[in-house]
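hey
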C-alpha cells in the first residue's frame, strides 16, 4: 500500500522504516531536507496516487492545525488523512469537518511505543468511520505488534475516540511511572537492600508488578545505578493534564494520576514556595526551627 507520511521525527522516522520493512511504499515529508523524500507537502501530494492516504505525525497543537489546514487545500475528494500525533481529542472533530468539507476522510490514531516501536511494534488506538479504518488496516497491521490484532490495536469508536483513549493511556502511564519511581527511592533509602537495580531486575519475571515500564527502569538503573547523570526535572506532554481535566468533567476520581501530574510540577521547583510557606507557618505557631537561606556571597 502507498502512504504519505508527514513528520519524520523520533516516531515518524521509525514508522517509515517499519512500514517499508513490511513492503509498503512510504513517501515522507519533513522540513529537514536530510530526512525528507520530497521538498514540500505539495510535492508529497503529487507523488501519491489517488485516492491518497496521508499519515500526519507532527507535534500536537499549532503544528498539527497548520498541517491539517494545508492538506485540506492540497488533497481532494476520496483521500484520507490520519492524525497519529498526540492531538487533544477535542481537536479531532474540527479537523474532520475541515477535511470533510473538501471530501477528505479523517481518522485519529493514538500511538504508543516510543523509540522501541520500530522493533517491537506500536500500540494503536483508532477513531473514525468503519470504512475509513478498514481502508487503512494494512497500515495499522504493519505498525502494530505481531500477534492477535486485538492485542495491540483497537478501533475505539468514532472520530475523537482514538485520541481520547491515548490521553487516558498517558494518564495511566504517569501514575505507573511515579509508582515505580517511588518504589526505587524506598529501596535505595534502606541500607538492608544491597542493590535496588537487582530487585527491579528480579521483578521482571514472575511478579504481579512486572511490566515494560518496570523493565525499562531496571535497564536505566543498570546503565546509571544512582541515576547520577539525570536531573529530576520532568516535563509533561500535556496529556496527563488533559486526563485530569476530563476526569473533573466526567466526575471520575483519578487521585493517582493527579498526584503523578503534580509530582512532575514539583520536580521543576528548585525551592518550593509551598514548602517554604509551611516552614514559615511551623516557625510562627510552634517556634520550630527553620533553615535560613545563607546571605553570604
Amino acid at each position: 500500500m502507498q502512504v504519505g507520511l508527514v513528520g519524520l521525527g523520533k516516531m515518524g522516522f521509525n514508522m517509515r522504516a517499519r512500514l517499508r520493512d513490511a513492503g509498503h511504499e512510504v513517501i515522507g515529508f519533513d522540513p529537514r531536507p536530510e530526512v525528507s523524500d520530497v521538498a514540500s507537502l505539495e510535492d508529497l501530494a503529487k507523488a501519491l496516487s489517488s485516492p491518497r492516504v496521508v499519515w500526519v505525525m507532527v507535534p500536537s497543537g499549532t503544528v498539527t492545525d497548520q498541517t491539517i489546514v494545508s492538506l485540506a487545500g492540497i488533497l481532494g475528494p476520496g483521500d484520507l488523512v490520519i492524525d497519529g500525533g498526540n492531538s487533544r481529542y477535542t481537536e479531532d472533530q474540527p479537523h474532520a469537518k475541515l477535511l470533510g468539507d473538501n471530501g477528505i476522510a479523517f481518522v485519529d490514531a493514538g500511538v504508543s511505543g516510543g523509540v522501541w516501536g520500530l522493533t517491537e511494534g506500536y500500540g494503536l488506538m483508532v477513531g473514525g468511520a468503519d470504512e475509513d479504518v478498514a481502508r487503512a488496516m494494512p497500515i495499522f497491521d504493519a505498525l502494530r505488534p505481531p500477534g492477535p490484532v486485538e492485542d495491540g490495536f483497537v478501533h475505539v469508536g468514532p472520530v475523537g475516540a482514538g485520541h481520547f483513549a491515548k490521553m487516558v493511556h498517558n494518564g495511566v502511564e504517569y501514575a505507573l511511572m511515579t509508582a515505580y519511581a517511588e518504589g526505587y527511592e524506598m529501596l535505595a533509602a534502606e541500607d538492608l537492600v544491597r542493590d535496588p537495580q537487582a530487585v527491579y531486575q528480579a521483578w521482571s519475571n514472575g511478579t504481579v508488578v512486572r511490566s515494560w515500564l518496570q523493565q525499562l527502569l531496571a535497564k536505566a538503573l543498570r546503565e546509571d545505578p544512582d541515576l547520577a547523570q539525570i536531573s529530576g526535572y520532568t516535563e509533561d506532554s500535556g496529556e496527563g493534564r488533559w486526563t485530569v481535566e476530563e476526569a473533573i468533567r466526567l466526575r471520575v476520581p483519578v487521585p493517582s494520576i493527579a498526584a503523578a501530574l503534580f509530582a512532575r510540577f514539583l520536580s521543576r521547583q528548585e525551592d518550593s514556595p509551598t514548602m517554604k510557606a509551611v516552614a514559615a507557618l511551623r516557625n510562627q505557631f510552634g517556634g520550630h526551627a527553620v533553615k535560613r537561606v545563607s546571605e553570604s556571597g
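The mean pLDDT is 94. Strands lie at 2-6, 25-29, 53-56, 80-83, 105-112, 123-127, 153-157.
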